[in-house]
Amino acid sequence: xxxxxxxxxxxxxxxxxxxxxxxxxxxxxxxxxxxxxxxxxxxxxxxxxxxxxxxxxxxxxxxxxxxxxxxxxxxxxxxxxxxxxxxxxxxxxxxxxxxxxxxxxxxxxxxxxxxxxxxxxxxxxxxxxxxxxxxxxxxxxxxxxxxxxxxxxxxxxxxxxxxxxxxxxxxxxxxxxxxxxxxxxxxxxxxxxxxxxxxxxxxxxxxxxxxxxxxxxxxxxxxxxxxxxxxxxxxxxxxxxxxx
Length: 244
Fold this sequence. Notes:
The chain is an alpha+beta fold. The chain folds into 2 domains: 209 residues, Gamma-glutamyl cyclotransferase-like (Hypothetical upf0131 protein ytfp, Roll); 32 residues, no CATH class. α3 packs antiparallel against α6.
């Protein structure tokens, strides 16, 4: 089954998306997109953001005494990605964890779809690459650090259905300050891409599931008295491997 998703945080970075799903994404298409009536916030002591429907983020602004953004800023820029398969989604769910729920939304595409494995045109200058991985130029071409100016909201293209990860944790863990992809790339992406990501705890479960080829561990409590040849009395733990 093919899935369409809207990404707005760390997964905006194509190298991080590839790292999670475990392939180059040659069958995936990506374009910039906009989610209306939601806001994207910093999570305290985290590199990644939280997205909330505005009816929930309004409470965050009120309780913190923070001024609400103007109406034309009550939206979230991100990437629309098409062609994800069931295993991709299972890995993405694992990566996002229980801080988020995957929900249906409508997002407005802001440009044509492009292959995730697309490479920049010859002689395209990508500033501020620094010591980033070798595919940094491609990533910066697909998802520019500085997004172009939005068209008037009443001139947006028709919305498309997608799924995205909505924050499900407590509001007290959020800052009213809005999260910036540009700041993330400049300050924290090194922890998530390349050699700096080797010990990143957020990849551990994803890597383990992929290493098991999509299988998961199931633990059961059984009565050892019912196991032939067992002299033990009571219960024991049996572990078997099954599909997802």
